[in-house]
Specification:
Elements (H helix, E strand, L loop, with lengths): L11 E5 L6 H16 L6 E5 L5 E4 L5 H4 L2 H7 L2 E4 L7 E3 L3 E9 L9 H18 L5 E3 L3 E6 L2 E12 L3 E9 L4 H7 L15 H4 L12 H12 L3 E3 L5 H15 L2 H4 L3
Parallel strand pairs: 1-2, 1-11, 3-4
Antiparallel strand pairs: 2-6, 3-5, 6-10, 7-8, 8-9, 9-10
Helix pairs in contact: 1-8, 4-7
């Protein structure tokens, strides 16, 4: 693992990489990276990604039949994948940016708790948006919201998975989402934050494009890494070992109806 100096902290890999094999492979690689970081087989990492095709990704404790319009997803050819972390159902795909942070707890002060981890990492995201001219605020449990038309509207959601020595925090940012597709695929979630106030997706969600912001995912990534203060080493993507482990997880777990549609 490369270090920033003789006694400096370990470098954190940073890369923009999306699996060409699809959503099951993308979630498989995420779990593979977390396991490798937790076990000390890989350096920590920050990944930015946005798949070319839409998919619905649900939280590990959710029921697909409750959180997704499964029939509409099948008619639309949209995959449903259960991830290994908590949180709610999200659409991934064009117009939606994802970022995932895989770090040991000792790299982030306060990350010994779920709330502390969210406050720290989402704080970097808020700082990144501020650098790019957008003011945001925390809302609900781990949402990032903006004020638009006198209402709080959701811009990003987050979820975590926690191992003994390391955590993964995922973020999903609405850049220029297809709200109509979200409305067709996702009913009102089973758990809603108070600030939603009963609003449907069209009134509750806000995309960067609709807010008048035109920066890209690469610009956000640079601002996020700068805000984090982490010692960064840019790489092309996951390691060969992570890719192999991720492919195995995708085949055995994330492509399986027994996993994705378990109750």
């Amino acid at each position: 693992m490369r270090r920033t100096g003789a006694s400096g902290p370990a470098a954190v890999r940073a890369f923009s990489w999306t699996s060409p094999a699809g959503p099951a492979a993308d979630i498989g690689i995420e779990e593979a990276i977390l396991l490798a970081v937790n076990e000390g087989r890989s350096p920590p990492a920050v990944r930015f990604w946005s798949p070319a095709e839409p998919a619905v990704v649900i939280g590990t404790g959710q029921a697909a039949e409750r959180e997704v319009n499964v029939g509409e997803a099948k008619r639309s050819g949209v995959s449903i994948v259960r991830r290994f972390s908590g949180g709610g159902a999200v659409l991934v795909g064009p117009g939606i940016w994802n970022y995932s942070v895989f770090l040991p707890y000792d790299a982030v002060p306060g990350s010994g708790t779920i709330a502390g981890t969210a406050a720290a990492v989402i704080g970097w995201t808020r700082s990144a948006f501020k650098r790019l001219g957008l003011e945001t605020f925390l809302a609900g449990t781990s949402d990032l919201a903006v004020s638009a038309g006198g209402l709080a509207r959701k811009l990003a959601g987050h979820a975590q998975a926690r191992k003994r020595l390391a955590f993964c925090l995922h973020g999903s940012i609405l850049a220029d989402p297809d709200i109509g597709l979200i409305e067709r695929l996702l009913p009102m979630p089973s758990e809603v934050p108070e600030y939603r106030e009963g609003r449907g997706h069209g009134e509750f969600l806000a995309g960067l494009g609709s807010l008048g912001f035109r920066f890209g995912m690469d610009e956000f990534a640079e601002a996020f890494l700068a805000a984090s203060g982490l010692p960064i080493e840019r790489t092309d993507g996951p390691s060969d070992a992570e890719l192999s482990a991720g492919a195995e997880l995708a085949a055995s777990k994330y492509s399986s109806d027994a996993w994705n549609f378990r109750r």
